[in-house]
Amino acid sequence: MYSYIVLLHILAATIWTGGHLVLASTVLPRALRARSPKILLDFENGFEKVGMPALVIQITSGLWLAWQQIPDLTAWFGFESFAATMIALKLGALALTAAFAISARFFIVPNLRAKTLPLFAWHIVSVTVLSVVFVILGVGIRTGGY
Question: What secondary structure letter does DSSP report for 24?
């Protein structure tokens, strides 16, 4: 079962990270050039259908995998082992991702205009960088470090 959960986690990570890399590297520059929030919103509406389930799968499987490695939740934040440090860093990246998502969803997207596109762009780039950080940390967990 463990290998299936790892596989689901990795597949979900490819969807989440790949989608954000496409968004940040191709869709965002086009929207900024055209000063068109619609370009971003159209992409987001389509991506949400696969991206959000992928994120839920990542969170669920990631917590299960962390529990398999370190069954004591308090030890996840003890930084006493390599695995605990990686888990804590991934949870920190998740908290930052959630903060950006809440900010975007409730404060930026409802008022998204050409004038506020740069602020939304900053959020997009930040979440994209965090998604790559997730992958780097995940590889670190699987390989024992760099």
Answer: I
Site of tokens 């389509």: 46
What DSSP designation does 145 have? -
Q: 3-class DSSP state for residue 1?
A: coil
What's 81's DSSP letter?
Answer: S
Please enumerate in sequence order all residues whose Cβ is within 8 A of that of 129, keeping only pairs 6 or more positions apart, or say none: none
Answer whether residue 71 is part of any domain. no
Residue 98 domain boundaries: 2-65+77-143
Residue 128 placed within a domain: yes
Which residue, 78, 100, 75, is CA-closest to 24? 100
Per-residue pLDDT of the chain (146 residues), as tens digits, is: 999 999 999 999 999 999 999 999 999 999 999 999 999 999 999 999 999 999 999 999 999 999 999 999 999 998 899 989 999 999 999 999 999 999 998 999 999 999 999 999 999 999 999 999 999 998 988 787 65
Whether the full predicted model's pTM is greater than 0.70, yes or no, is yes
Residue type, 118: P
How many CB atoms sit inside 10 A of residue 145's CB?
A: 9
